[in-house]
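Comment thread on ticket #2218

A.B. wrote:
> Attaching the input chain for the structure job we discussed in standup.
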Amino acid sequence: MNLVKNAVAAAAASLLLGGTVQAGTLADVQSAGHVKCGISTGVPGFAFTDDKGDWQGFDPAVCKAVAAAIFGDTSAVKYTTTTGKTRFTALASGEVDMLARNTTWTFSRDTDLKLDFVGVNYYDGQGFLIPAELGVSSAKDLDGASVCIQTGTTTELNLADFFRTNGISYEAVPIETNSEGQANYEAGRCDVYTTDASGLAATRSALEDPSAHALMPEIISKEPLGPLVRHGDSEWADIIRWTLNAMITAEELGVTSANVDKMATGTDNPEINRLLGSEGDLGAMIGLDKAWAWRAIKMVGNYGEVFEQFIGKDTPIGLDRGINAQWTDGGLLYSPPFR
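C.D. wrote:
> Ran it. Output below, let me know if you need it in another format.
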């Protein structure tokens, strides 16, 4: 943690000394013609490259929505892959303008590392993946197991706390990326793979025989995952935050990529009208035009559309909405009002 903190602090200091503190991130992004977005090195459904080599997935969709809001072009994104060790330094140094990857919102990251989490796009928790043939029904029965775990992540401390609390021991097998973790797990170099439960579901879907592997029932932590930016530029943070909120609100109000054009001509719902710019001018408050949210929804989709496209129950990942359902459906997904 200290090494990460020192690297991030040095990067932030370099920005300050260089006179490029991010008080003008939006202007810099507009001048460059693209958003610099930090993503993971690859997690099925969440971040992957298609047949053309273009990044797709649940997390890059946030970057695409921001690019759509600003430029009206989802391809106006420059992606940089980051690991658990490199992600915060890449953001603090200005190598990327935002991170949209499986990163947990914690106290120290939000304050000590001088980063701003702007929302939650997936409520998760840490779990365990094991070969079904082991016949283990609970993570509490994993005494003495070897565990593949990504370095530079919250999972390291969570794992240590869980095993210590339950009076059992483990052997850590350190890894840096999900692909490395999958390879080590498949090769039998570790008995167990632990990370966010969503990531484990994604990894299991990519195994030769997913049914031969089981997710343990225990979820041992809270892992609110979401996009983040550097401290120091509230306007830029507002753009990322409210683009995500626009996608969430659009789903709640029944606005989709298919009907957004019709909705944008005006409805009987004032909040839809404000969201899509047919009433008032919320875009001016964040340095954009009236159609910013319309573009994000039209070109990328609302939150539910993105969820079902990349990680939903009809995809190989097969995730139910669960606590990521709208608050109106008993979940935690909730956006402040557009007014």
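A.B. wrote:
> Thanks. Noting for the ticket: The mean pLDDT is 92.
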